[in-house]
Amino acid sequence: MYSDFLLIKKMKQGDDAAFDIFIRKYYREILTYCYCHCPDKDYAEDLTQETYVRFFTKLSDYHYKGKTLNYLYTIAGNLCRDYLKKVKEIPVEEMDFVEEKKLKQYQTEEILNKIYIEQALGQLPDELSEILTLYYFQELKLTEIASTLQIGLPLVKYRLGRGKKLLKESLGKEGNYE
Length: 178
Fold this sequence. Notes:
Elements: H1 4-12, H2 16-37, H3 41-57, H4 68-88, H5 92-105, H6 108-122, H7 126-137, H8 142-149, H9 153-175
Helix pairs in contact: 1-2, 2-3, 2-4, 3-4, 4-8, 6-9, 7-9, 8-9
């Protein structure tokens, strides 16, 4: 398999096969990341595609400095944040329609589990939720998270520990209601 450096070099030269290999290499990871931040599967796919569009638009200016995946996560993270800002502005009537559509797409148990976890993550500060998502759902190492978020490793460790503690407390409280 090609390294990112070689793929980027070939893509800058216009090699269509390199574009295809590059997209396939990271598509699932970026889609999973977007889906964790955007509960609408179709929109998560759109965000994933937009991530690649933005990356390829700036490809001529991109200089390989390490993990390209981290850069893709940064782009996807910005797109997801923009999406979440827009969702907050959707009128309640449209939100109800979106919720009904989701209920029809998934089995009840899967919906309840997803809502339960999303609510628990939603109660956490954004910086903790982001780290937990990267760590558990994207399975990034702590050093990769630090690089992706452009923060120090000690801060990643602190936020991960704090996030785990708060998530455990939140899930424990919700579990008592059943």
